[in-house]
Design a protein that fits this description.
Elements: H1 2-33, H2 36-70, H3 76-109, H4 116-142, H5 146-171, H6 176-196
Helix pairs in contact: 1-5, 2-3, 2-4, 3-4, 4-5, 4-6, 5-6
């Protein structure tokens, strides 16, 4: 049992590290391409957009525990329903943040950061997709495939950074969210393929 737990932990940590690497990679890419002012605007926008991901991460923990204990990780209708509800809830939070963005940014950071608002609104869209991906990540891990979940996240992160590098180099900081969106959509597609290959309604292995 201990060997299985170690293997499971290592595969899960690969996904965690790939996510951290992608987050840090954004900053490394932008440091090489944009001015200090543009970098500051992007970091500010990213911080506010992270409010949506808090919901996704909370749902991830709940879904992982529920699907693992019930053995329903391969119940695709259930997983899709949870994913849709998470998207709706995340979108509601994103709309609220987007609507109040100008006032909140001005209040907390001042007029110097007003150009961060358009970036924030684009990043909120990416955050909604990533929030839904958190649910799919939990379902794949609960199905006993933490390595597959990690690879899905890693592939999306790499594509997102590559496209970000290209778009920012060509069009500036305003195009940065489009690279992240590409990576998030690839991750979503990979999770869809992974879940489609799971045996429907089959009891999943417990670790």
């Amino acid at each position: 049992v201990s060997v299985r737990l170690w293997r499971y932990g290592l595969r899960v940590n690969l996904g965690v590290l790939s996510g951290v690497a992608a987050d840090r990679g954004q900053i490394v890419v932008l440091v090489a391409l944009v001015s200090v002012r543009d970098l500051g605007l992007y970091v500010a926008a990213l911080a506010f957009a992270g409010l949506v991901l808090v919901l996704g991460q909370a749902v991830n923990s709940i879904v992982l525990a529920e699907l693992s204990s019930s053995g329903r990780a391969a119940d695709r209708p259930l997983v899709i329903a949870l994913w849709r509800r998470t998207l709706v809830a995340s979108a509601a939070v994103a709309v609220a943040v987007a609507a109040s963005a100008k006032y909140v940014v001005d209040l907390l950071l001042g007029d110097a950061y007003e150009d961060a608002v358009p970036l924030l609104r684009l990043l909120l869209i990416v955050a909604v997709v990533n929030s839904g991906n958190k649910v799919l990540n939990a379902s794949v891990r609960a199905a006993g495939l933490p390595g597959r979940a990690s690879m899905n996240e890693l592939a999306g992160g790499i594509l997102g950074l590559f496209i970000m590098w290209y778009t920012v180099a060509e069009k500036g900081i305003s195009s940065a969210p489009f690279g992240l969106a590409s990576g998030a959509l690839l991750t979503l597609a990979l999770y869809g393929l992974t879940l489609a290959r799971l045996p429907l309604n089959e009891e999943t292995p417990r670790v």
